[in-house]
Amino acid sequence: MRFYLSTLAGHRKGVLVLLAWSLLEGVPAFFGGKLVGSAVDRGFAAGRPLAGVLWLLAFATLAVVGALGQRQVFARLGSVVEPMRDALVARVVRGVLSDPTHRRTPDASAVAMITRHVEVVRDATAGVLVQARALLVTTIAALVGLATTAAALIWLVVLPIVAALVLFGFMLPSLARRQRHAVMADESTAEASGAVLTGLRDVAACDAATEAFEDIARQVDRQARATITVAWANSLRATVIAIGGFAPIALLVAFAPPLVSTGQLTTGAVLAAVVYLTNSVNPALHGLARTTSTVVMRLMVALKRLQEAAPRTGVESGDEIPSGGGFALRDVTFGWSPEAVPVVRGLSLDLRPGDHLAVVGPSGIGKSTMAGLLTGLMPPDHGHVLFGGVPVDRVVPAVRHHAIALIPQETYLFTGTVRENLTLLAPRATDEDLVEAVDKVGARPLLDRLGGLDAALGHGGEGLSAGEAQLLALARVYVTSASVIVLDEATSHLDPAAEARVERVFAQRGGVLVVIAHRLSSALRANRVLVMDGGRPLLGTHEHLLETSALYGQLMLAWDPTHRETPLPKR
Predict the structure, then answer these.
(1) Helix or strand or coil: residue 329?
(2) C-alpha dihedral, 373 to 379 to 380 to 382, nearest 10°
(3) In angstroms, how far is CA 227 from the centroid of its own chain?
(4) Helices in 490-533 by DSSP H: which ranges?
(5) What are the b/e assignments for 349-363, b being 16+ CB within 10 Å?
(6) Closest to 31 measured CA to CA, from 136, 149, 135
(7) Which residues have C-beta within 8 Å of that of residue 215, sequence separation ≥ 6?
(8) Residue 522 and residue 358: Cα distance in Å, rounded?
(9) Which of 365, 349, 346 has the alpha carbon at shortest distance from 533?
(10) What angle in degrees, to the nearest 10, is found between the helix axes of 133-149 and 267-275?
(11) Following CA atoms 432, 437, 438, 439 in sequence, which dihedral angle do they give, to the nearest 10 degrees?
């Protein structure tokens, strides 16, 4: 809530402008009953129909003025709401990226947060700034107008309204809980559906279609029950407000005639009270309650969920400066949860400038976890990962980002020119630097085919093969000054010759090169090899591991040296 309010406070001027136009919008609500009462008492009832018509025309003129104020509110709403929405989206993205459990697979619940919860906050904020603001102004203006026009009737209006609002207030906590249950059920449905859709091959391979369907069906049924519960709560809320809005009119009908007959009220004053009740107070009461129980309630629940997904407060960024460019891993252990079997266990390793390490093992064994540990994206559960003598996750972010470069298997290209894509991490690189990097990784024929550095690329590298996209991603990192390069199966779509060339040129740059191997041929080119199989990792040269590791020997036997493109065997 503090973040939300601070975001709105950053656009204080826009909010104040909205409030100023709101005052103009409330003018008809304040003067409407007075003008109608005057039209009766000073016009039609006094035998002066022309004067009555003029009073009504004045009322119509004020209605136009109020509509102008409302129009200006809508016209300026976007300048407040849209920047707030963008800030919330950035908050959710940072929160998801800061959670290591969401880095390996798409996070369907985070998608639900961005596509639904953020939009709920956006729409609810607009609703509060438009509806609740206007209804509050209208209610206050109408009650003040009623008090100054027909003071004898004010208690008939205020008492039932206050009673209805108090009862409604007692209902809000229960309504909030039910609304939260509905939101959580919606996220669970999105998460279950996303897990099945991203793992369709696994579902088919395990013949688990029935189990997958039943899981999603349970979540959908839970969501339906939660939605129905919210609907029942809203219907009860509507009943309370309807009674609170109808009671003043019923009391007015019962008590006004005696007051008129005794001369305490004029006919015009009673008619003015009816106008205030039917045109302003009653609709405003219904609208304010509806806005509070739906818009504001959904706003509070959505903000709570976004807060839970936001980065942890109090987490400080790194402030350490490394004294060198080497790594030291000391008894490092990492698991995806406290209950899970560690994927890295008791690993100790030194990497110095000039080292070339290949990480091999069956697919899914946790090789890519090494990339997260070395780059500081994931802190170890036990042990230390030191870069230049300090914990890598405590290094000043700007220094770490400058010194360590990770190229994942997924290729990220964006809409723009080839030059803009290649200079993403090295904005000061010259065209000569870019062309040299392209040459080094073997992408010059691709660059010539595209039409040079000014050639346009589509979203996600549309029109390029997976291998061509990887070549551009490799050139983008080669042109940087990073002293540590981590290739996380970044050459998986290249042929063996192209892969060998890429690894060779990166090794020749100096610094540290870590290759998460897709093919075992990478192990033959490395100075040292790290073998992972769920237990304590094995480290050594290719020749040493052939003599001492049965697993490494089996992997080599399973690899067909006459077809070097054969990837690592699956588990």
Answers:
(1) strand
(2) 150
(3) 23
(4) 496-508, 521-525
(5) bebeeebbbbbbbbe
(6) 149
(7) 192, 196
(8) 6
(9) 365
(10) 170
(11) 90
Q: Letter for the amino acid at 383?
A: G
Cβ contacts of 499 within 8 Å, gap of 6 or more:
491, 518, 519, 521, 522
Do 309 and 110 touch, CB atoms closer than 8 A? Answer: yes
Q: Report helix, strand or coil for 320.
A: strand
Taking each helix axis as running N to C, give the angle between helix 267-275 and helix 27-39, from 0 to 180 degrees, rounded to the nearest 10.
150
Q: How far apart are CA 112 and CA 144, in angstroms?
A: 44
A 10 A CB-CB count for 114 gives 17
Cα 486 from Cα 327, distance rounded (Å): 12
Start-to-end Cα distance in the chain: 47
Task: Give the three-class secondary structure for 334.
Answer: strand
User: How many CA atoms does the CB half-sphere of 509 hold within 13 Å?
Assistant: 24
Count of C-beta atoms within a 10 Å radius of residue 228: 12
53, two tokens: 């018509």
pLDDT tens per residue, the chain (571 residues)? 666 666 666 666 766 777 777 777 767 777 777 777 777 777 877 788 888 788 888 878 877 887 777 777 777 777 777 777 777 777 777 766 665 554 444 555 556 566 667 777 777 777 776 666 666 677 777 777 777 777 777 777 777 877 877 887 777 777 777 877 887 788 788 878 877 887 777 778 778 888 888 888 888 998 888 888 888 877 877 787 777 777 877 877 787 788 777 777 778 777 777 776 777 677 766 666 666 666 666 777 777 767 665 555 444 567 788 888 888 989 988 887 777 778 888 888 899 999 999 998 877 777 888 888 888 888 888 999 999 889 898 888 888 889 999 998 888 888 999 999 999 999 999 999 999 999 999 999 999 999 999 999 988 788 899 999 999 999 999 999 899 999 998 888 899 899 999 999 999 988 899 999 878 888 889 999 998 876 678 888 888 888 888 878 877 877 655 444 444 444 4
Q: What is the dihedral of CA 99, 100, 103, 109, to 10 degrees?
A: -40
User: Using H for helix, E for strand and C for coil, what is the string for 200-266?
Assistant: HHHHHHCCCHHHHHHHHHHHHHHHHHHHHHHHHHHHHHHHHHHHHHHHHHHHHHHHHHHHHHCCCCC
387, β-bridge pairs: 327, 390
Q: Are 359 and 516 in contact (CB under 8 A)?
A: yes
The contacts of residue 78 (CB under 8 Å, 6+ apart) are none
The structure tokens 């020119």 sit at 417
The 512-516 sheet, strands edge to edge? 404-407, 484-488, 512-516, 356-360, 528-531, 538-540
